[in-house]
TrEMBL record:
Keyword Signal assigned: yes
Protein name: Amine oxidase domain-containing protein
Family the entry assigns: Belongs to the flavin monoamine oxidase family.
InterPro entries found in the cross-reference section: Amino_oxidase, FAD/NAD-bd_sf, Flavin_monoamine_oxidase
Amino acid sequence: MSSSTSSALVLAAAVLLAALTVAQHGSLAAAAGPRVIIVGAGMSGISAAKTLSEAGITDLLILEATDRIGGRMHKKNFSGINVEIGANWVEGVNGGKMNPIWPIVNETLKLRNFLTDFSVATNIYKEDGGLYDEAYVQKIIDRADAVESKGEKLSASLPASGSDDISILAMQRLYDHQPNGPATPVDMVVDYFKYDFEGAEPPRVTSLQTTVPNPTFTDFGEDEYFVADHLGYETVVHYLAGQYLKTDSSGKIVDPRLLLNKVVTEISYSSSGVSVRTEDKSVYKADYVMVSTSLGVLQTDLIHFKPKLPTWKILVIYQFDMAVYTKIFLKFPKRFWPVGKGKEFFLYASTRRGYYAARCQPLRSRPA
Ligand SMILES: Cc1cc2nc3c(=O)[nH]c(=O)nc-3n(C[C@H](O)[C@H](O)[C@H](O)COP(=O)(O)OP(=O)(O)OC[C@H]3O[C@@H](n4cnc5c(N)ncnc54)[C@H](O)[C@@H]3O)c2cc1C
Ligand SMILES: *[C@@H]1O[C@H](CO)[C@@H](O)[C@H](O)[C@H]1NC(C)=O
Ligand SMILES: *[C@@H]1O[C@H](CO)[C@@H](O)[C@H](O)[C@H]1NC(C)=O
């Protein structure tokens, strides 16, 4: 049995406040309605509204297309246990700065989590079964790490404007790393794990400057914690929402400033305010609107902007590719894989690059 979700992926760095302000600044003729409309109730929309609320701007209206908050943080009951069909890891922990999500997950909500062990050298499986020799794998990983370090230095030396940016593949070629691309199964899976798994696209189309070094890890630390709690990673969004939106005794949000099942289709804006239209033909007026939908939504015509967004903004929206990231969940009748510390994550080294390569982890059923 398998259940899969194909959703678009935006790197973790974008989790907080990736909102887009459309209204012009300056003095506004007060429009009838709230001061700010927030489109989308995922992590960024809920966080943006919380920030406004804490700054004293409580006259808000959040419009969410689906019947729930959380967006791409979402759990699903798969064959009796809750699995994460969207975000799964707290990325960037144990570094110089504290990842704001981490204390919420680990201390406040105490969601079940565990450190992802990146020492994959001992966990790469051959296509026809069995593990690769550790020393053989380690040499390949060391070489790939060394090239990445050179890439980080190069990246830092390029102009911040991105005018001289190159792809990860070009960087690898520059340092004479597998100039014809990785060829052996282990070379391929290490390359895939390093770049495609994190960036959702192959090195050929992945920007050097925006991914190497990865600011999430530089700022917050190299560690990643996998959230595997039956309550779901989405609990974090509910927790943040509950800090400023009214809830009932069961914790359910009952605040009239959050409207679900409201698909925004049109945003008209001028120096005197904004007018937001939804699929059910409602119209909401405000001084400002913040759009927190994914780039994937912004790259379509699902939301019509009137007038059209300025060219510079459209260019920025199209500068990033919205990748497809597919998770596949499988349930087996009995456990045949090794278990224990350091065994949770493993790679499969196919002769076809990227073919079911990504590490998987056995999921235990709900803990007592
Ligand atoms: C499969 C997958 C795995 C991931 N793994 C990780 C991970 O391990 N760690 C990590 O940190 N990140 C991960 N991410 C990324 C993370 O999930 C996102 O960066 C984050 O959840 C994005 O939050 P957001 O609020 O910006 O966008 P979203 O969560 O997409 O929220 C936008 C909201 O806007 C709503 N919306 C869209 N269009 C409209 C409209 N027209 N009108 C009204 N509402 C609208 C949507 O329904 C949604 O609720 C993963 C993502 C995916 C898809
Ligand atoms: C998932 O659904 C099944 C069947 O409806 C139910 O028995 C089970 O308790 C659910 N699991 C969780 C974690 O909610
Ligand atoms: C997470 O919380 C546990 C229990 O409070 C604590 O022992 C542990 O050190 C925390 N982990 C990190 C990385 O902060």
